[in-house]
Design goal:
Oligomer: single chain
Structural class: alpha+beta
Number of strands: 7
Distance between the termini: 20 Å
Order of helices and strands: HHHHHHHEHEHEEEEHEHH
Helix content: 55-70%
Largest sheet: 5 strands, antiparallel
């Protein structure tokens, strides 16, 4: 039976409980109500004591994450999860009010501008070069070398806002634009440095999106990996699928939150990685 306004307000006030067991029961009840109780949490936020404010934010965060986790389950049930949907869901983890339609429209506009610059007879190599020039030279996207471990670098929405990112998010940006242009660009999950790739004249060519869209041959990629302390295996140059790309984005965030002591956020993201990779939510 649904609770009325009075009952929902009363339930929220019970977050002031001092007894840990009683407080745990109240939290459980609120989480069971779901997003419908969010306005009532917001009502008392302004006049809340510091301790109550912390509890309100904790419960609100858990409610938002419940919804987000359900959306990740829906995304992951597809045989091939949509990379764009997944990247924007990850943005929602850090920025719950992000308007995905704003960023989809931005991607549409940029792709249209690039399309107008690509000759009708251009091959894949020339088309990728023109896309890369537009993104990294005209729009000014670049790797965030000074603040590499800033969590914003892992959120596609913030990468678009700031025009700075890390290898995987900048590569995802390129992949989403390439998809709109019908260019067969793919992600390459080399350790320590994510790349984009395409085939030209039967050979693999790689795009280093962190370093301004620099093009690399396979021998150059091998040398880069050896220089960075990694061994080479042939599978490292192969395309990776959408699940693996989204999992890599999430694991970067997990690592950042672990380093900054945000254990709860890291734990929540770990459950999302499992959902993305398996398509199942093991939590009730």
């Amino acid at each position: 039976m649904a609770l009325d306004d009075k009952a929902l307000r009363s339930l929220v006030t019970l977050l002031e409980e001092e007894d840990p067991a009683s407080l745990a029961l109240v939290r459980c009840k609120i989480l069971g109500v779901g997003a419908a109780i969010m306005p009532y949490l917001d009502e008392v936020r302004g006049g809340a004591t510091p301790e109550m404010a912390v509890r309100l934010e904790s419960v609100s965060g858990e409610l938002r994450f419940q919804d987000l986790r359900r959306d990740f389950v829906r995304l992951s049930l597809a045989k091939t999860p949509d990379l764009e949907d997944g990247a924007l869901l990850i943005s929602r983890f850090g920025f719950p009010d992000v308007d995905a339609s704003v960023y989809r429209a931005w991607l549409d506009r940029v792709a249209a501008a690039v399309a107008a610059d690509i000759p009708a007879d251009a091959g894949i190599g020339e088309s990728v070069r023109r896309l890369s020039k537009h993104v990294f030279q005209i729009l000014g996207f670049a790797g965030n070398e000074t603040r590499y471990y800033d969590a914003d670098n892992s959120y596609l929405s913030r990468v678009i806002d700031t025009r700075r990112g890390i290898p995987v998010t900048l590569t995802v940006l390129m992949l989403l634009l390439a998809r709109r242009l019908r260019l067969p660009l793919y992600g390459v999950g080399t350790p320590g440095h994510f790349l984009a790739g395409f085939k030209e004249g039967g050979s693999a060519v790689f795009v280093d999106c962190f370093h301004g869209g620099q093009l690399m041959t396979l021998p150059e990629v091998k040398r880069m990996l050896v220089r960075n302390g990694y061994g080479w295996r042939p599978e490292l140059g192969k395309p990776v699928n959408e699940r693996e790309i989204l999992a890599r984005m999430l694991r970067n965030l997990i690592s950042i939150h672990q380093k900054t002591g945000a254990a709860e956020r890291a734990e929540r993201l770990s459950t999302v990685v499992e959902i993305v990779l398996t398509g199942r939510d093991t939590q009730p």
